[in-house]
Structure formats: C-alpha cells, structure tokens
C-alpha cells in the first residue's frame, strides 16, 4: 500500500530516469521498498545496470538483490529468457539457496507448468513449513488457474497461521468482493481495522462494503466509517465525502415513514456536500455541475 | 424484435475501452457505453462514446452509483443515454461473462432494454499486432427472452459492426505508442478530481 507522497516520489524518479536524468538505482530501491508492481520499468532500468559490468560491480552485494528483482519483473513481463538467465546467475552464486529455489518455482509458474511448480514448492516447504512466500505462491497459482475457491481456501489457511499479514487480508477481502461475498469481505476489513485502526483505506473499504450490503443497520454503520475516513484524511477524501451523501440518501429511503425522531442530524451531510462543492469549484470546475446533479439526486 | 438488433460502435468508443483494459493489465476493468437507437433505423443501436469506469473492486456500489448519475447527466444533454456495459476479465484465460458483469448488464437493461454487454476478447487482442485476425477484439452479449446473457451467435460478428473500417489499425498504432497510459477512468477521478474521465484530449 502506497501513500500519495510515495507514489508521487516514485513517478518523479520514473520520469527522471526516462528522460535520461539518471537515478535508476534509486528508483529500483524505492520500487522494491514500496512493493509496487511496475515490471516494465524495473526490467528496463534493472537490465541497464546489470548489463553494464562497471555499474554492476558498483552495487557490491546488492547486485544479487537486483538479479532477484529483475528476474521477477522479467517473469511478470513474460521475458522468460531474461528471467532464466538471472536465476542461473543466482543459482551459481548461491547453490544451496532456498530463496533461489523459490524463484525457480516462480519460473515454472510463469511457464504455466503448474504441476511442476507445485512439486518444487512442496519440496521447499518440507524444510521450511513456515515460509510465507511459498504459501502465497500457492494462492497465486490457484488464482492464476481460475480456481478461486482453492485460492480462498489456501488464503484462509495462510491467515490462520499468519494473521498479522495485512496484505493477505486485503487480498482475501478483494477476492470476496469480486465474488459478491460482501459479508465475508466485511469480516476481513473488520480484522484490518482492529489491527490497524488508523489506516483510512480500511475504513473506506469497509464502508463501501457495508453500503453495498445494504439494510438500515449496515448503512448507518457505513456512514460512521465514511465519517472516520474523513477524520483520518483531514476531510480530503472525495470517496468518503460522497459516501456520506450516499448513505444519508439511502438511510432516508429505507427509513421512510419511520419515527422522525430517529432521523440523524443533517449537519454531517451538509458539511460533506459543502466540502465537495468547494473542492469541485476549485479543482474540477467543469464537473461542478455534475456534482450538483449528484447532490440533487441524493436530495442533499 | 430484439433478435434483429444490430450494434454499431464508433472507433473512439471502441479504442478507449481497449486502451483502458491495457492500462490495467493485472485487474478486471469495466466501462459504460453511451448511445441510442439510431434515429434513421430502429433496428440499430449506435454506441457513440464510452466512459472507462473502474480498475479495482468493480463489485462495490458507491463509486458505481456516483459514476452513473454523473455520466447520465453529462451525456443526457447530448441526447445520448447509457446503452451498454463493457467488461474485461482479470485473467487472460477467462472468457466467461462473470456474475458482476451480468448484474450490471441487468441493471442497465431496466433503463434501456436493448442494452448490450461487451466482453474483451483476450485472445483476439493478443493476435492483433500479428495482423492475422481483423475482427473486433470485443464480444457481444445480448439478453435472450429468458433474460439470460448469451454470446451473440457464430454470426455475432455481423451483429456488431464498427463504423470506421480502419479502427483496428488505429488501435494497433496506439498500442505500439503506449497510448493507454493517457486513459483516465472514474477510479482515477475519485482519487484526484482533477483527472477527467471524459478523456477530452485522448484522441486529439
């Protein structure tokens, strides 16, 4: 998960390198640190360093990390020959390494040789039953073969052991959402919010899922979590502001004819609407009319 | 009557959707088709424009509801309505029209019964640069009498036509020049409202 500042920094570096201003190594390190998926750039910049013996030896021991990073990017771009070469170099340097073994497994995956990849991972995990990467490769393989129920099963098994892996919870939540299993997705976001209560993304996603589930109670809870997202993002999150408006409208519809005393105070939605109007006027004036139309439809 | 319907898509609408899918190769993406029944010929639905919607969490309602209101309002003033839905699956091997796509298609049919659903044909897209197969890289799905979405027959190719015959050539050019980087979708807009989902400069 990457913040806006981190993404801007990465993009700036990318532009710099693309325009011949150097900084390839900084880019590669940042990409590795942020765990972003930009295989074309990583492959291009990585190879430019690896294919230059001076630049390569200047890296010292980091050379091997770069080979690994480039191997993975190459597999992602289906440049399997490049990947094979990188892995060969690593194998030569680290003949007994399980880490290289994992890369070899991934190469089998990239070739679509699922059975052989599974064999490779099984033998690696015999000695390392707690290797997280291998567990996750199993999930990835199931997903790649379209076996979503197996992916869910493996991912749940993984989370029973490694319940602090936030990325895994997010992955599971997103798989559930794609299958319209919103209750299960909600559970995942609840786990995430419990363990990392100050990450606004989880509050927002949870609110979106609850709204999608519908029903008065879920809508009221969704509204609370859109509100907490606004709180955690200094009022700048467009999705959360719109979420407040959507919830207010939906709650109004669902509770038509009910006791007026249950009606919530209108301040939150008018504040949200005002914030949205101000933002659109300032930064997206050509769409301001459309926003007004949205607010009108939602009777805000 | 619906069985006789033909769909005519404009080059820009077509290319925009395919480029959007190429920008987000690792996830499913979707989009809205804008159009109307052709004024001169009621058995043809013309798809005049498209709006790329999302590249994450396609099955969540809040962003979709906002997008539909804004899109309808904008295009309504141009005499166009929501006429269909586009979907591209996450995996290359997945050639099925999934449940999310069908549900959104059903929703659109409530307002425009002749609505079509287009599914990106990954195999044809892959073959495009090789120049062998010049058919459109999208598949047409139509609802049958029992409201099930069906691939428009083996002659589906003739029910979906593109106005501009050189569209695939233009598309191939754009792919080589990585034009897909410039496509803005609704997700991008919600993340930063300065990003314009109308993509006014895309084909200039």
From TrEMBL, chain A:
Its main location: endoplasmic reticulum. It is found in: Endoplasmic reticulum membrane. Keywords: Endoplasmic reticulum, Membrane, Repeat, TPR repeat. It comes from the Eukaryota. It is a peripheral membrane protein. InterPro entries: EMC2-like, TPR-like_helical_dom_sf, TPR_EMC2. Residues 100-209 form the EMC2 TPR-like domain. Component of the ER membrane protein complex (EMC). Part of the endoplasmic reticulum membrane protein complex (EMC) that enables the energy-independent insertion into endoplasmic reticulum membranes of newly synthesized membrane proteins. Belongs to the EMC2 family. This is ER membrane protein complex subunit 2. The lineage of its organism: Eukaryota, Viridiplantae, Streptophyta, Embryophyta, Tracheophyta.
TrEMBL record, chain B:
PANTHER family: ER MEMBRANE PROTEIN COMPLEX, ER MEMBRANE PROTEIN COMPLEX SUBUNIT 8_9 HOMOLOG. This is MPN domain-containing protein. It holds the Pfam family UPF0172. Residues 7-142 form the MPN domain. It comes from Hibiscus sabdariffa (roselle). Belongs to the EMC8/EMC9 family. InterPro entries: EMC8/9 (IPR005366), MPN (IPR037518). It comes from the Eukaryota.
